[in-house]
Amino acid sequence: MNTNNFQEHRIDRGQGSIYARDYAGTGPAFVLMHGFPDNLHIYDELVPHLVAGGRRVVVFDFLGFGASDKPTGAKYSFEQQLGDLHAVVQGLGLDKIIPVGHDSSGPAAVNYAIEHPEHVDSVCLMNAFYLESPTAKYPELIELFATTNLKALTQAILRSPEQFAWVLNFQRNKFQEHLTEDQKVSYAKFLGPLIDANFRNQPSSGPAFAQMTTHLFEEVAKNTKRINKMWANDIPVKLIWGETDPYLNYGIAKHLHSLLKHSSLHILPAGHWVQLDMPDKVAEVMLGNV
C-alpha cells in the first residue's frame, strides 16, 4: 500500500519543532500518537487502510522523538505532549479530531478530550495506560526508568550503549513471548530496528524517554482523579486491545470500559503493537465497519 501521499509540516513548539504528516481525506481527522520507545512509524501499516476508507489522517512525532527536534536541555513531560497535540491541531487548522493514543500517549488522547472537548469527536485507545488499574504491569525497562530513586543507575545505563542495548534486548524478548511466529518475524524486521534507531541515532530520544518515564507514576495518579470528567463530557471512546500484551493487558481495557460512559471494547489476537500486528482489523474498528 502507498504511504507516501502526504504533506509534511514542521510545527513550532518554542523549544523545537514537531514533525507531522497530513494525509488528505474527509471527516474528523484521526490524529495518531506514539508511545515511549518508538515514533510515528508504528502506524505505517495502519495509515493506508484509514486513508483507503476516505478519512483524513495526521501522524506526528512528539518533541524529542523520531523526526521532531530533540533540543539540548529541553523539558519533556506528559503536559508537554498534550501541548504538542494541541499545537498540531492548531497548526494544521483541524476542527474536530479523533485523538488516537497508544502506550504512553493514552494520557494525551484522554486529557485532550477533557480539556478541549470542542475539538474532539471521539477518542481511540490502543494498549495504552491512563489511570491506575488492578491488572496493570509496566515493562521492566519502563519501571526501571520510572523509579526515581534509581536515577543514578538509569543515567549510567543511558550513557553506556552496550548496557542500554542489553536492557532493550531483554525487553524485546519479553514483548515477543506470546506473539505468533509471523508477528515475531514482523517485530524483528521492523519494530526492533525502529526502536533501536530511536535511541542510537544522534541526537537520541534517550533524554525524552528518561524524562517522560520519570513522570509516569505521578501522571497515572493524577489521571485516576480525572477520569470522572470523561463521564461528564459524553465523548465516545473506542478501546482496541491486543490480548497477548503481557504488560498493558486487556484487563486495563476492561477496567476503562467499566469506568467510561460511552465506550466500546474490541479485543484482538495481537500483542502490544496491535496496529502493526493486525492493521486491517484495527482499521475496520476505527472506521466503524465492524
From TrEMBL:
GO terms of molecular function: hydrolase activity
An example Gene Ontology CC term for this record: membrane
Keywords (A to Z) from UniProt: Hydrolase
Transmembrane segments: none
Location of the AB hydrolase-1 domain: 28-277
SUPFAM superfamilies with a match to the protein in the record: alpha/beta-Hydrolases (SSF53474)
Domain of life, source organism: Bacteria
Entry-linked InterPro entries: AB_hydrolase_1 (IPR000073), AB_hydrolase_fold (IPR029058), AB_hydrolase_sf (IPR050266), Epox_hydrolase-like (IPR000639)
Keyword Transmembrane: no
Name of this chain's protein: Alpha/beta hydrolase
Organism expressing this protein natively: Paenibacillus psychroresistens
Lineage: Bacteria, Bacillati, Bacillota, Bacilli, Bacillales
